[in-house]
Automatic annotation (TrEMBL), chain A:
Stretches assigned to the SHS2 domain: 24-225
Species this chain originates from: Paracoccus solventivorans
Functional note: Cell division protein that is involved in the assembly of the Z ring. May serve as a membrane anchor for the Z ring.
Membrane topology reported for the UniProt record: Peripheral membrane protein
Protein name as it appears in the record: Cell division protein FtsA
Top-level taxon of the source organism: Bacteria
Protein family: Belongs to the FtsA/MreB family.
Pfam families assigned to the protein according to its UniProt record, in alphabetical order: FtsA, SHS2_FTSA
Automatic annotation (TrEMBL), chain B:
GO biological process: cell septum assembly; FtsZ-dependent cytokinesis
Protein name according to UniProt: Cell division protein FtsQ
PROSITE patterns: POTRA
Gene field: ftsQ
Organism field: Paracoccus solventivorans
Pfam families: FtsQ_DivIB_C (PF03799)
Length: 446, 342
């Protein structure tokens, strides 16, 4: 746990250095696309007081100066599978964004969508010696959380204190200087597969970039797509990506739970390709151009020409048409299956007990027409399609739902939530290590 | 069927088998050009990032062209003949421009100079006319000319038409100064104008003498101005000990003036002269070195007159008592009456 603490602190330092230098890149390595946006941090003061622009949770301090999206290769289920190809995609995206920005970027924060995330709720409690909560007490109670066995080779991606309680008063977000005897904390820890995380680090390093932070794509999408009230009152964000559908639960502006369903929009494309016997590119075109989930009788008569181009080697030039009803008939079961997976995840997470059961669908696959109707039938009545927040300088083509994770990570960089490693390591812990090191040094040298 | 079989056999026996026909060529899919990888290669990516680094940008954009220009110039100039050609060409160009008709100076006009100074000035011109005006450094020429004692100020101009005009203000001799090395003419500020061979050359000018008199010429002139009534008798001023003036009159009379404020002292002496006719009497020295206590040194006749009136023996020029009977000098007895205050 200590290594991770150091690593995360190092990344945090890198992020701060990048923000001090003013340029930071956000890299979203997804299954179907790689997006890189470059943020310029001008610091506060670029707006006058009369402009009526407040701090806006750090959003007013940065703007997007470069953005580039390219097709992703070598990624499956949100995990890097072919390093060389993914690296090339990342280079392409970074270079394109750099070209637009006109600056060289060295620090990158990246999202990771797959890698089998697992959520844990941790609880810790300490007695307060000074009678009130100090900074050290907060750090100590975070360190006092009982850590379950995460399993072999799991890395902690997020470890956020969700709730503080002093004596009987629970629901505190900032317990400092509150008088009491006991301090308790609930911490949400999100772990991911260590190899996938290492692959991501490796891929970024091979592009001569320094990793300044990693965020879960589901979490980032929730930050971008949920409005503030939804984050406060409780909502689930379903980030329907190409390979993985991420689910994150928010309550009181904290992430309580995150998981991923290993199904996504690419699966729908494969189904169309197999079912209609068209190449994958045509299937993707069919899905995005003519796809839908609610069939009407008119769709039987609406024929779509899927005649391949003459030079294509797969099909020998026969003229073929499919009806839109056929297409919907293929897409709908698969989307239902994905949403069923999401519902199972939500059930496991205890979504039924949340005060407000709002579901926000975002991500690339959420653009299928009729998804909100279908999702309302499966996930509950409060469903809406969410688009990411508008941030300064972002181009129109990057405001689509498929870039929710990218935007969310930019917001996270500008206004990070407290993580466990943002607090100082408790003194006893650091002291023991220091003493042990000193003892070892004496024994070795005298 | 059998007939047909037979026929077939007969047909095959009689005619050669049909040649194998080529299968009709189906339109083959055109070979698709290998799709280029969209992403940049690692080298291209690194070069691109390098190019985005501000330092390299500046180095390549500014440093490299500078280096290139310097290298080319250095290589070209490394050859001796090229260097000589270049300098020769530049010099020729400069010469060509400088010796154009518009810049030529043909004559020299001098105003306000005596013939001797005029001649000297013409001799001091560093070039022989006609010459280019670029070769005549007027400032240097002016400084050299003003170093001449006879010239107080000179102004050079090159006028249109190739005329070098000089406006000269000469020093006016105001006084003669006799010193150990000869006789000099000085102007009113005490600056040497010229040397003269004898006093008779300028009888109109007053004379001063003594070492260190020149810097105090102004004072001397003021004294001479003040000595109005005795001016006809004045022979000159003597600087004594480089600190004070003696006014020397004819008949060997002398007025010794103090170091400080000599002018009031002189006026005092003149006032005494006007009241008592002091200088018309037998007084050799009027000593005013201490103005509060004027001292007179009387002449021999006056002393002897006084001594006669007092019934004392007379003294001769050396101060020896004269025996009335002998009328000769007695060297053993001396009197220091000349030293006595009067």
């Amino acid at each position: 746990m200590r290594d991770l603490y150091e690593a995360q602190r190092a990344m945090r330092q890198a992020r701060r250095a990048a923000m001090a230098r003013g340029v930071l890149a956000v890299l979203d390595i997804g299954t179907s696309k790689v997006t890189c946006i470059i943020l310029q941090f001008d610091g506060p003061g670029q707006f006058r007081e009369s402009d009526g622009v407040g701090p806006m949770a750090g959003q007013s301090s940065f703007r997007v100066i470069g953005q580039f999206t390219t097709q992703s290769r070598g990624v499956r289920y949100g995990e890097i599978e072919i390093m060389a190809e993914t690296e090339r995609c990342v280079r392409h995206a970074v270079q394109g964004a750099q070209k637009q920005a006109g600056v060289r970027v060295d620090h990158v924060i990246a999202t990771i969508s797959g890698a089998r995330p697992a959520s844990y709720g941790l609880a810790g409690e300490i007695a307060l010696r000074s009678g009130k909560v100090t900074e050290e007490d907060v750090a100590a109670v975070l360190a006092a959380c009982e850590v379950p066995d995460f399993g072999r080779n799991r890395d902690v991606l997020h470890a956020q204190p969700v709730n503080f309680a002093v004596d009987a008063r629970s629901g505190l977000s900032d317990p400092r200087d509150i008088v009491g005897d006991r301090l308790a904390v609930d911490m949400h820890v999100l772990t991911i597969d260590g190899f996938a995380a290492s692959n991501l680090v490796q891929c970024v390093q091979r592009c001569d970039l320094e990793l300044a932070g990693v965020g879960s794509a589901a979490y980032a999408a929730g930050r971008a797509a949920l409005v503030e009230d939804e984050q406060e009152l409780g909502a689930a964000c379903v980030d329907m990506g190409g390979g993985v559908t991420g689910v994150s639960l928010f309550l009181k502006k904290h992430m309580l739970f995150a998981d991923a369903v290993r199904m996504g929009g690419d699966l729908v494309t494969r189904d169309i390709s197999a079912g209609l016997r068209v190449p994958l590119a045509t299937a993707e075109w069919l899905k995005t151009r003519h796809g839908g989930l609610e069939a009407t009788s008119r769709d039987d008569r609406e024929m779509i020409d899927v005649t391949p181009e003459q030079r294509d080697e797969h099909w020998d030039g026969e003229r073929r048409t499919v009806s839109r009803a056929d297409l919907i008939g293929i897409m709908r079961p698969r989307v239902e299956e994905i949403l069923d997976g999401v519902r199972e995840v939500l059930e496991v997470a205890g979504f039924d007990q949340m005060p407000s059961r709002q579901v926000v669908l975002t991500g690339g696959a959420s653009q299928i027409p009729g998804l909100d109707v279908l999702a309302a039938r499966i996930l509950g009545q409060n469903v809406r399609i969410g688009r990411p927040l508008r941030i300064h300088g972002l181009a129109q083509q990057h405001t689509a739902p498929c870039h929710a994770a990218t935007v969310g990570l930019a917001l996270h960089a500008a206004n990070p939530q407290d993580e466990w490693w943002d607090f100082e390591m408790p003194v006893e812990r650091a002291g023991v290590v220091g003493l042990r090191r000193a003892y070892r040094w004496f024994r070795n040298n005298w | 069927m059998s007939g047909l079989k037979h026929l077939t056999a007969a047909f095959s026996a009689s005619a050669p088998p049909a040649p194998a026909r080529r299968v009709g060529a189906r339109p083959q899919p055109a070979a698709r050009a290998a799709r280029r990888e969209p992403g940049p290669s690692r080298l291209a990516y690194r070069l691109n990032r390098l190019w985005l680094t501000p330092l390299y940008r500046r180095l390549v954009g500014v440093g490299l062209p500078l280096l290139l220009v310097a290298a080319i110039a250095g290589l070209w100039l490394s050859d001796e003949t090229r260097r000589a050609n270049l300098t020769g060409g530049v010099a020729a160009l400069v010469d060509n421009i400088q010796s154009r008709e518009a810049f030529m100076v043909r004559t020299m006009e001098i105003e306000g100079a005596s013939p001797a100074v005029d001649k000297a000035l013409r001799a001091m011109l560093p070039v022989t006319l006609p010459a280019s005006s670029f070769d005549i450094e007027l400032r240097d020429l002016r400084e050299a000319v003003e170093r001449l004692d006879a010239i107080e100020k000179v102004e050079f101009r090159i006028r249109p038409g190739g005329i070098l005009s000089a406006v000269v203000v000469e020093r006016k001799p105001a006084i003669l100064w006799r010193h150990a090395r000869g006789l000099d003419l000085l102007d009113a500020q005490g600056h040497r104008v010229a040397s003269v061979t004898s006093r008779d050359v300028r009888r109109d000018l007053p004379l001063i003498a003594g070492e260190g008199a020149a810097p105090h010429t102004a004072e001397a002139l003021a004294l001479i101005d003040a000595a109005g009534p005795i001016l006809p008798r004045l022979r000159g001023l003597v600087r004594v000990g480089e600190r004070r003036w003696d006014l020397v009159l004819d008949r060997g009379q002398r007025i010794m003036l103090p170091t400080e404020r000599p002018l009031p002292a002189l006026r005092q002496a003149l006032a005494m002269d006007a009241r008592d006719g002091l200088l018309a009497r037998d007084v050799t020295v009027v000593d005013l070195r201490d103005p509060s206590r004027p001292v007179l040194r009387m002449g021999l006749t006056a002393q002897n007159t006084l001594r006669r009136a007092a019934g004392l023996p007379e003294i001769d020029a050396e101060g020896n008592l004269i025996d009335p009977e002998e009328g000769g000098a007695k060297p053993a007895v001396t009197a220091s009456a000349g030293r006595r205050d009067g």
